[in-house]
């Protein structure tokens, strides 16, 4: 007779030791061989303005011999960040006008963001909240958190609470559990969603206690942010497996379309396939939000649509996120296509992906 727990609930092994420490200063990045000495002054100037952090796990993913390394590009400071391009703004998704109480953003009637802290495991050079996030933490005080949770309790139209930041998995398991518990006790909250870079950027943080903190009788979704297939390292896969085995949260994937990181059909295909292999469903592919100093990452929308069009038929619908732009006026996420149907000659015509591929393969005249 089998008298142990079913295989999927076997207690997870302890996470791997978190080797090394997070690099935050230009001097540390130079000493680690990630930046040349010649970049010191510029890197110091960038780090004085925007937070920098490279965790040991992310450091191990970088290839210092590759000047175009897609992992390094996401995290290492660059002098271009000090130049603000036309159209870039400090609050490109207009959070501030939709903030009823500190730490809450209420844009859509049925859902709202809760930002319990503004610290992250790493600081992405393209971050849309780069003017706000940093290691100082921006942690809501007990009174502020209480007021924010009160707001959720008093707002019955809100069915989905979305924990973001910063990164909510940077909270202590105890504090995170308290927040999840309190939200789960609100009768009108049906879904608790969390957005995090921790499983790929600092997987050792995904401890059994952190996994338990996500337990709820509500539907819990953890949206894992990753932009390149290599971010699904063996350590990250172990962290995701611990989350899965814990069973508290369903896993979704979110990415940003980034020049030099994932701006080809091959890179996107590899990314979405890596997500699915890790049992993470690709959910959103974001057009870059125009935060200050991020222009070097921007891929024009027409190019993004063409990339996704190329992918259609190459990957299954499971590997197909919705390509969206967060409206800069705070109006919410708009799907950007591409479209495969058009009304022509009084009827709907579709560009069936396989038919297009066959046409492309067919020999031309002559
Ligand atoms: S983890 Fe998210 S919030 Fe934090 S720096 Fe990166 S993009 Fe910004």
TrEMBL record:
Needed co-factor(s): pyridoxal 5'-phosphate; [4Fe-4S] cluster
Radical SAM core domain: residues covered: 106-318
Source organism per UniProt: Craurococcus roseus
NCBIfam families: AblA_like_2, KamA family radical SAM protein
Pfam families xrefs: LAM_C (PF12544), Radical_SAM (PF04055)
Entry keyword set: 4Fe-4S, Iron, Iron-sulfur, Isomerase, Metal-binding, Pyridoxal phosphate, S-adenosyl-L-methionine
CDD domains in alphabetical order: Radical_SAM
Protein name: Lysine-2,3-aminomutase-like protein
UniProt family annotation: Belongs to the radical SAM superfamily. KamA family.
Gene3D superfamilies hit by this protein: Aldolase class I
The UniProt record lists the keyword 4Fe-4S: yes
Coiled-coil parts of chain: none
UniProt keyword Repeat present: no
């Amino acid at each position: 007779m089998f008298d142990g727990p079913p295989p999927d609930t076997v207690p997870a092994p302890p996470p791997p030791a978190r080797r090394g420490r997070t690099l935050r200063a230009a001097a540390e990045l130079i000493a680690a061989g990630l930046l040349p000495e010649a970049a010191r002054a510029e890197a110091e100037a960038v780090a004085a303005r925007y937070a920098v952090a490279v965790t040991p796990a992310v450091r191990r993913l970088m290839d210092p011999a590759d000047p175009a390394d897609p992992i390094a590009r996401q995290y290492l400071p660059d002098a271009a960040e000090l130049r603000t391009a036309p159209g870039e703004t400090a609050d490109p998704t207009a959070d501030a006008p939709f903030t009823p109480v500190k730490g809450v953003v209420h844009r859509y009637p049925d859902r709202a963001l809760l930002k319990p802290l503004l610290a992250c495991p790493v600081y992405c050079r393209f971050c849309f909240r780069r003017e706000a996030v940093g290691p100082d933490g921006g942690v809501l005080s007990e009174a502020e958190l209480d007021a924010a949770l009160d707001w959720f309790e008093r707002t019955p139209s809100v069915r989905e609470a979305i924990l973001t930041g910063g990164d909510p998995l940077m909270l202590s398991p105890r504090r995170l559990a308290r927040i999840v518990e309190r939200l789960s006790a609100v009768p009108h909250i049906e879904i608790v969603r969390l957005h995090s870079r921790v499983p790929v950027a600092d997987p050792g943080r995904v401890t059994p206690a952190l996994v338990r903190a996500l337990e709820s009788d509500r539907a819990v979704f953890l949206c894992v942010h990753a932009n390149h297939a290599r971010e699904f390292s063996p350590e990250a896969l172990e962290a995701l497996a611990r989350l899965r085995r814990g069973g508290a949260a369903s896993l979704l994937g979110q990415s940003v379309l980034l020049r030099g990181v994932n701006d080809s059909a091959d890179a996107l295909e590899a990314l979405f396939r890596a997500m699915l292999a890790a049992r993470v469903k690709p959910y959103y592919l974001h057009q870059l939000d125009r935060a200050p100093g991020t222009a070097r990452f921007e891929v024009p929308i027409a190019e993004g649509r063409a990339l996704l069009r190329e992918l259609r038929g190459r990957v299954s619908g499971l590997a197909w996120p919705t390509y969206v732009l967060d409206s800069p006026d705070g109006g919410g996420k708009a799907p950007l296509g591409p479209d495969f149907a058009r009304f022509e000659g009084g009827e709907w015509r579709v560009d069936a992906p396989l038919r297009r591929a066959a046409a492309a393969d067919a020999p031309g005249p002559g």
